[in-house]
Amino acid sequence: MIDINFGSLFTVELLHSYYKDQLCPDFNILPSNQTVKTLGGHQIIARQYSNQLITGVNCNGKINPPKPFTAIETGAQFTFFMQLNNPLFFNYTNLSSATPGKIYYFTNRNNNVSNGKTFLSSKIAVYNAANTYAPGDLVSNGTGITYRAIGSSKPGNTFNLTNANHWMVVDKNQYLTEADALKWMPSISAYQFASPQASVNISVLGYDNIATTYTQSVFSKTIAFANPASSFPLDLSFLQSGKYSLTVNGIQQWIYINDELSDSKTFAVIDIFNDASPVSCNLIDGSGALINPAPHYSIYFLNRATIWKYILASKQSGNINDTANLYHFANPASVITSLTPIPLSNKALNLKLTLNNHDYSPIACADPQRLVTITKGTDTYPCSEIFLNF
Q1: Average confidence (pLDDT) over 179-207
Q2: Are residues 309 and 258 in the same domain?
Q3: Which of 339, 282, 264 is nearest to 308 (CA)?
Q4: 3, pLDDT greater than 60
Q5: Is the pLDDT of residue 337 over 60?
Q6: How many whole angstroms separate alpha carbon 362 and alpha carbon 351?
Q7: Residue 339 CB coordination number (10 Å)
Q8: Tell me, what CATH number does 214's domain have?
């Protein structure tokens, strides 16, 4: 008799603050071709259910805690591709628009634990008065609270996190940012210089399992050209698929190499590793048994905040007020705009329009279907226009 007893190996959940239940349904999650082989060789199943990727491994159920029948070796890598299935995603998500060749990269090697969750995105940087910030940028206050910039600031014209005209408290979660974006490169490519070069110095750094940082030298080479060249063939086909730091003639960039992406429209890559350290990479314990509870990883998207612009059909002056008194508007007017950006959500706010001594509530809220831009002071914001038939 065959003993089949699947135990939970790890779970990845996709969350989005735009949705009132926070569950993000906007992606299909698929294993890479190599991961399909790895899963089969270890008797692991991986299935997507709604917003979660759930994996289970066939174990010896007579042992407590259960152990996988096929040992999961240190350094085992499980790669999954996130494919976007909602064309409006960037309209309501606090990210820049899609750029050809750019992908986001999520991994448990980021060791990003906050608010009782283990996030696969990189840690949000702590606020630094020496940096320049634009509306939508995220920072941490250093004690686990995330803030969103609602006004620009720069060295010599700084506004700290207590300035409510420039910063809005989000919560204690960690959200992905453009710091999680990498340049996808095929393993063999034509590297273009900004101007002709007489030679090229190439340096590639990979992940160091001991230091748990990308400081391990995996490739270094200098090539002298017979004549100044505008490009050269960059061959990195000997590298394992993954994230690397590439420096060419002193210019550093983060790259992701995986030739499976050449014909796909992948939004992001998820890399789950079984490493001895950090703890976020422990899929099994020191004896090779499953961890209880199994690792549960999170990827959290933050909703975009926009200026809300109400346009009254009657062209008469009215007032719009938030009954919760969280957001405020430039009243009275026939075209009424919010004083600060308001996060988009499919959970409506309770707003009230007062026009000709009559109250109308609730009124329509902004949706992601239509976005324009609006300039307030020196900043340009995404703007949601809402037409009211009053």
Answers
A1: 96
A2: no
A3: 339
A4: no
A5: yes
A6: 6
A7: 15
A8: 2.60.40
Is there a domain that residue 55 lies in?
no
The model's pLDDT over 5-20, given as tens digits with 9 standing for 90+, comes to 889 999 999 999 999 9
Res 59 pLDDT > 70: yes
Domain boundary among 263, 285, 317: 263
Q: Which residue has the tokens 């959200």?
A: 175
**Cβ-contact 323, 351 below 8 angstroms:** yes
Range of the domain at 247: 183-263
Question: How far, rounded to the nearest angstrom, does the alpha carbon of residue 363 sit from its chain's CA centroid?
Answer: 32
pLDDT in tens, 245-270: 999 999 999 999 999 987 678 999 99
Residues 312 and 239 in one domain: no
Number of separate domains in the chain: 2
DSSP states along 2-68: ----EEEEEEEEEEETTSTT-B---EEEEE-HHHHHHHHHTTEEEEEETTEEEEEEEEETTSSS-EE
- Type of residue found at 56: G
Give the model's confidence band at 64: pLDDT under 50 very low, under 70 low, under 90 confident, else very high: confident
Give the closest residue to 84 by CA, choosing from 173, 16, 184, 21. Answer: 16
Q: Does 54 map to a domain?
A: no
